[in-house]
Amino acid sequence: MYLTYGLNKWSRLAPDRTALVCEGRITSFRALQDRVARVAGMLRDKGLAEGDRVAILSLNSDRAVELMLGTVWAAGVANNLNIRWAAPELAYAVNDCGARILALDAAFAKHLPALTAQCPGLEHVLYLGDGEPPEGTDSAEHLLQQSRPIPEANTDPHRAAVINYTGGTTGRSKGVMMSHAAFTHAAAALQGDRFFLEGQCASLVTPLFHVTGLSAVLMNMAYGNPVVVLPAFEPVAAMRLFEAERVTHAVMVPTMIQMLVEHPDFDRYHLGRLKYIRYGGSPISEALLARIMEKLPQAQLCQVYGQTEIMPLTVLRDEDHSPEAVRRGVTRSAGRATPYVEVFAMDEDDRPLPPGGVGEIAARGLNAMMGYWNEPALTAETQDGWTIHTGDVGYFDADGYLYLVDRKKDMIVTGGENVYSTEVENALAQHADVLACAVVARPDERWGETVHACVVLREGAAAGEAELQAHCRELIANYKLPRSIEFMDELPLTGAGKVNKASLRERLSTGAPTTA
């Protein structure tokens, strides 16, 4: 099957059924199929060949969805760029995947000078906004109206459809290649989840560059459900959209859910039709779960655990969120393995451990990535055949529930976003006053975790927290910035001479002095 499976199915069976709703524009399945075929024709006119990559830098919109689907319709590969990245990070991804075509909207036109200067391989920039396109770009809507629709060029469900860039332990992002078939198998693994039912009204509130946002569009389209698009998450805007469009299904990270239920204007909106909430990125706290049950008693909850490299791995279903499940501590787990996906806790020799055995979490299934773009060595480190080594550490209980206990790669999860400590450390280290630094997760009630930096300054240096944060802001995305900086005389070291991050994390959780 292909990413366009649902589009083709419902444009044939129910052509006038609504497919997308975005900022007053209502697009039927018939109209969407025509526009996608015209986007494909437009891209071919711009020189897109089979397997070529198209970079998309846009807030959520119907036009961004059309660009993505049109790319794969023309047998290209869509690269939904992280909208929270700084210009150097965006340029890296564009150059790394070799995209010759970039599509962007008005919100990111500000990056155009930097991207055109730093991406010599770019040949065409398409503007997804309304009105006069910026200098050096072509109006995508104008070109679309002039283009002829072309037949779908997909012939192999195992070819790459999407490249999503994710953080890496070296501080460099990696392009995760996912095939059409991998998304199909991801959908199959979630078929038992009540989140996907025909006849519902779904919403897109998480970004398209997230696998959660991508799946919200593709899987609901497969069921013929309309998808109502919110350009960017903001609690009041989300509540207005849920109420006005009678939304029944939403995918959010726990931070988003918390922003909704704790908003002072929550009771002004009628959200009784919001019956299914799927969340991921981090487990949900017991306090927030109680708040949801109070504010949205009709909503059924489902947590999905996975990675960009393989999604989903485990599911914590609605029945696992009951008061009894809370008392048993089940909500602290990541749920149980989904159908068609095997998940293990492995020892150091890659042997599955029995229940209670703590080891690295590994998984295998046809929903796994094809590999990292242009990174065979890194692919080999992470992927062995179908098996993906997640880098997370945890254990299974006797009932098959997975409990994550640590992150092998020191990843920080803040507001559902993954931040790798070495990437932040690399940015800090570029400041002339910084002698040494280490970055760890700081527990936070609102965001789950925030980025905390421990810094040793050079002798005589005087850089403060605000100066270092401003320095980092020029190099990395805002959500990766250190929210707190602790200045130290020296960093604690292990016996092997490595920075003892476990000691730093313990200091944050207990307030005890840091020791080497």
Tell me what the structure shows.
With 516 residues, the chain is an alpha/beta fold. The chain has 16 helices and 27 strands. The strands form seven sheets. It has a five-stranded parallel β-sheet with strand order 4-3-5-6-7. A five-stranded mixed β-sheet has the order 12-13-14-15-16. Helix 1 runs parallel beside helix 8, helix 2 crosses helix 6 and helix 10 (254-261) packs across helix 11 (286-295). The longest helix has 17 residues, at 29-45. The radius of gyration is 23 Å and the shape is globular. It starts with a helix and ends in a 6-residue tail after the last helix. Mean pLDDT is 90; it is low at 512-516.
Summarize the structure.
By secondary structure, the chain is α/β, with parallel strands linked by helices. It has 16 helices and 27 strands. The relative contact order is 0.09.
- Note the gap between the termini: 55 Å
Count of extended strands:
27
Relative strand content: 25-35%
The helicity comes to: 25-40%
Specify the CATH architecture of the largest domain. 3-Layer(aba) Sandwich
Poorly predicted ranges (pLDDT <50, ≥5 residues)?
Answer: 512-516
**The CATH homology group name of the largest domain:** ANL, N-terminal domain
Structural class from helices and strands? alpha/beta
Tally of helical runs: 16
Instruction: Determine the mean pLDDT.
Output: 90
Gross morphology is globular
Number of domains: 3
Biggest sheet overview:
5 strands, parallel
Provide key terms for this protein.
Rossmann fold; alpha/beta; five-stranded mixed beta sheet; GMP Synthetase, Chain A, domain 3
